[in-house]
Design goal:
This protein is 62% helix and 8% strand. The protein is of the alpha+beta class and 780 residues long. α1 packs across α12, α7 packs antiparallel against α8 and α23 packs parallel to α25. It is a multi-pass membrane protein.
């Protein structure tokens, strides 16, 4: 053994290493095959109900409410505009509308259709019950009479007919919780009918759950493919620019794609679908997972450049990078795991499975990557580097500039931080039903059509509970309900409303010849008693079961309004609750606000708490990790400051440009902090190793700056570039995730290369050995 050169390895030992590498590749290959099987089981899905706050008492109440009265968003709106120069009462137009109505009625998964050609005025004469149509297309002479009656009848204008008589709406009630395939089939059937009737696309509009579900899932599939393609091209380019070798490009790609495969495989094994949030996992992993491989290959190439053998270079690399990479993987995954504090299931799933994928990426970086490097021949470097590295000159000049301008850096940092904190106070929590679609998106424009011409698309739900000894048809209960309706139509802004009052008024009108003057509540209990005996004639009608329980023990006040946003909705709901407490007799009628819109708004109440909780946990865990490893409050401050400053700056940017906090953007800060602290951990761990053989703190920081600077810059460019691919998204939420996390990481690398070395020199200028004294090795 004595004659073997220092850089050589015994043949038996080398063979053992190669066998170990081959065995590792075999095991990893089998695990990858298993992951691929589960990935094949994954499906894309967008379930509106998933965005309700899980575990909330209001959600439990709403689920019981839907069992009693049905879901408030199981509908599809089809708005059709009359041809230019015509009104909706033109006979030819009404024939087309009736054809669409019959087509929709025959379609699978359609429960009922409310259409201009099917609505009727019920009339009771003697023992007979008649439905008199409002429209008579075959009798042109009655057009003026028909239109006059329609525009005097409550509940028709704004619901079925537009105020300017230029458009009509078909309200298509679908089966509960309609999934994407049957929803797509229904939309395709209706679009086919519209095409056969030669109605141009500019003259019809769709809105409703089936539309949003179809569009979101189709775009998720398309954007996932686009983002992954752009990320691969971008990362490939940056890796080639950095290493200028085929293996410096291919090996990181293999590791990262393997981590994505494993992460998605875990998702598939747990039966989780790809939704608006988890669709970001592959892109996140592609840019985040590259970090460890860049640090490893950068160090490996450096050792080779200094003349080390392949095995020695790999041994030194794994020894020096293992601690920092493991710690950074832990802190990055914590940034994602803290999203599990959210009550919104898609965010919870995204945080859980992305955090798991980050840890899997670390495992592959220190198993698969070393095995591949070991089996490859020793690479030939493009340029001999016996005298150092090409990056040394650039980083050396940058380091000197930072030292010379240290006062300016501290002053500018302080001023920017103060301004950012002030601007951050302007950030508001606000969301709308279609917040993730841009304002010029065709789907959002269609929804805006219904807001402009009809009652709107935001549902409203209020459950009505008569007091003991009364039912929903009690006269006092009806009068209290009517007062609530008057408030909702006037002060609250409800454009369409229906309740048991609507039923009773309609029945009274029907019993009195169908005249509009008879559309009112009974004058006294005696009249109501006579009317109640006739209610059984109408109870088989669908609108009765939708608005009142058969035994009259509860009722429903439902309606639609404009999507005013959560801030305005919260103010309106506070005013409504105050009105109900002060103006409605609770000994007669009790009420409870519920519905899908109320639950979405309630997310905002939890959003701030969830965000603060997640961020606090993230900062606390990083603090505890640093304290446990270094036993030093000074090191904790050194780690936290360069990573919290970019977070606060981006919060200020949000306040400056008016970006609201909502479900999709609430994840930004915890993710960005978890990723940004990665480079700090690598820098500190390399400094600790450098100080073990370089006692001079200044020289040690400079050497660390030169060694770690390249990896910090390259990984940051990959991260910023990778997140910038999300700017091409048609979803506003995804766009802002890419923009704001990218800005955070960009500001982070600036802080890393300026504030971090200055903070180390400032806090440890008299005690450089303190970094070593509190290192994990000394503790152990």
């Amino acid at each position: 053994m004595r004659g073997i050169p220092r850089d050589a390895s015994p043949p038996l030992f080398a063979m053992s290493l190669r066998r170990t590498a081959h065995l590792a590749l075999l095991v990893l290959g089998l695990l990858s095959a298993l992951s691929a099987y589960y990935v094949a089981q994954l499906r894309f899905n967008y379930n509106f109900n998933d965005f309700y706050p899980a575990g909330d008492p209001d959600l439990d109440y709403y689920q019981g409410y839907t069992r009693r009265f049905g879901n408030d968003n199981d509908y599809l709106l089809l708005g059709v505009e009359a041809p230019t120069g015509q009104t909706v009462f033109a006979p030819g137009f009404l024939v087309r509308v009736d054809s669409l109505t019959q087509l929709a009625r025959r379609a699978p998964h359609v429960v009922a259709v409310t259409s201009p050609t099917t609505i009727s005025n019920p009339v009771v004469e003697g023992l007979g019950f008649f439905n008199l149509p409002y429209l008579h297309p075959a009798e042109p002479a009655r057009r003026t009479q028909d239109s006059a009656l329609i525009y005097r009848t409550p509940g028709l204008v704004g619901n079925v007919f537009s105020a300017d008589a230029r458009a009509v709406t078909l309200v298509i009630q679908t089966s509960p919780d309609l999934k994407k395939p049957p929803g797509d089939s229904l939309l395709a059937t209706l679009r086919g009918g519209l095409a056969r009737l030669h109605i141009p696309e500019s003259n019809f509009h769709f809105a409703g759950r089936a539309v949003a579900q179809s569009v979101f899932v189709d775009r998720l599939q398309w954007e996932l493919a686009v983002f992954m393609s752009l990320s691969v091209l971008l990362v490939t380019g940056l890796l080639w620019f950095t290493f200028r070798t085929w293996w410096g490009v291919v090996l990181p790609l293999i590791v990262v794609l393997g981590a994505i495969l494993w992460g998605l495989g875990v998702m598939g094994a747990c039966g989780i679908s790809i939704d608006l949030m988890t669709a970001l996992l592959p892109v996140m992993m592609f840019v985040v997972g590259t970090s460890d491989t860049v640090h490893i290959i950068t160090r490996y190439v450096s050792e080779l450049g200094y003349g080390a053998s392949k095995k020695d270079a790999l041994r030194v690399t794994l020894k020096e990078s293992g601690f920092g990479s493991g710690l950074s993987a832990l802190t990055t995954s914590l940034g994602f795991f803290t999203l599990m504090t959210s009550t919104i299931r898609p965010i919870y799933n995204f945080g859980l499975f992305t955090g798991i994928a980050v840890l899997l990426a670390f495992v592959l970086s220190f198993t698969l990557l070393p095995a591949l490097l070991l089996l490859l021949k020793k690479p030939q470097l493009r340029v001999p580097r016996a005298q150092g590295h090409s990056w040394d000159g650039v980083l050396g000049r940058l380091f000197r500039t930072v030292l010379v301008r240290r006062r300016l850096i501290f002053v500018v940092s302080g001023l920017v931080l103060a301004a950012s904190i002030g601007l951050a106070t302007r950030v508001r929590i606000n969301s709308a039903l279609l917040d993730d679609l841009s304002k010029n998106d065709p789907v959002r424009l269609d929804f805006a059509f219904f807001e402009r011409q009809f009652a709107g698309v935001r549902p409203f739900e209020l459950e009505l509970k008569p007091a003991a000894g009364r039912d929903i048809y009690d006269l006092d209960v009806l009068r209290q309900t009517e007062r609530i309706e008057t408030y909702l139509r006037g002060t609250y802004g409800l454009r369409f409303a229906a309740s048991p009052v609507t039923l009773v008024k309609s029945v009274r009108k029907a019993l009195n010849g169908g005249g509009l003057a008879e559309y009112r509540l009974p004058a006294d209990a005696a009249e109501l008693a006579r009317l109640r005996s006739k209610l059984k004639l109408f109870r088989k009608k669908a609108e009765f079961s939708a608005l009142a329980l058969p035994d009259g023990s509860a009722g429903r006040l439902t309606g639609r309004m404009a999507d005013v946003g959560s801030i305005r909705a919260d103010a309106l709901n506070d005013g409504l609750r105050l009105y109900l407490r002060s103006s409605i007799d609770s000994t007669v009628l009790r009420t409870r606000l519920t519905g899908s819109s109320n639950l979405i708004d309630k997310n905002n109440e939890n959003l701030t708490l969830n965000m603060i909780t997640g961020m606090s946990i993230d900062v606390l865990m990083v603090t505890l990790i640093v304290l446990a490893l270094f036993k030093s409050l000074r090191m904790t401050v050194v780690v936290l400051i360069p990573n919290l400053v970019p977070i606060l700056i981006v919060a200020g940017v949000m306040g400056l440009v008016g970006v609201s906090m909502k479900v999709s953007t609430s994840i930004i800060f915890t993710i960005a902090f978890g990723i940004a602290v990665d480079d700090t951990i690598h820098f500190i761990s390399k400094l600790r190793l450098t100080l073990s053989h370089e006692p001079n703190l200044f020289k040690a920081v400079k050497r660390t700056y030169l060694m770690a600077g390249k990896a910090v810059i390259v990984t940051s460019l990959i991260l910023v570039g990778g997140f910038s691919t999300l700017l091409f998204s048609s979803f506003d939420g995804t766009f802002y995730v890419g923009l704001l996390i990218g800005l955070t990481l960009l500001f982070g690398v600036v802080a890393e290369l300026t504030l971090l070395p200055l903070l180390i020199l400032f806090f440890y200028k008299h005690k450089p050995k303190a970094i070593l004294e509190h290192s994990p090795e000394s503790v152990s």
